[in-house]
Amino acid sequence: MDNFTATDVADLYQQHTVATGQVVTADVSALAYALTGGQPWLINALARQAVEVLAPDPAQPIDAALIDAAKARLIQRQDTHLDSL
Questions:
Q1: pLDDT at 79 over 70
Q2: CA-angle at 21, arms to 34 and 14, nearest 5°
Q3: How does pLDDT run across 11-55, given as a tens digit for each residue?
Q4: Which of 14, 47, 60, 67 is the most interior residue, by most CB within 10 Å?
Q5: How far, CA to CA in Å, does 56 sit from each of 38, 48, 79?
Q6: Contact at 8 Å (CB) between 6 and 14?
């Protein structure tokens, strides 16, 4: 699979907002793209950590601080693909 573009990341995170009502702040897509280089597994892993572990309440917005925390969690877990993060 090809890497996502910055627009793809924004579209993906917007789909989450539409489906759940959980707001993803405007800076999150750009940060996630910058951290991952558009690698789909990493983009989804960051989002999963943010929305399922760190902020499972849809009333809590997903912001840059949560994405940074999600990045730290992924690095600590030492999953595959993390050399790209």
A1: no
A2: 35
A3: 999 999 999 999 999 899 999 999 999 999 899 999 999 999 999
A4: 67
A5: 24, 10, 21
A6: no
**Which residues is 24 bridged to in the sheet?**
62
Asked whether 61 and 22 are in contact (CB, 8 A), the reply is yes
Confirm if 42 and 84 have CB atoms less than 8 A apart: yes
Residue 85's pLDDT band (cuts 50, 70, 90): low
3-state helix, strand, coil in the chain (%, to 5): 70, 0, 30
Q: Tell me, what amino acid is at 71?
A: K
Tell me the residue type at 6: A
Residue 55 · residue 27 · CB < 8 Å: no
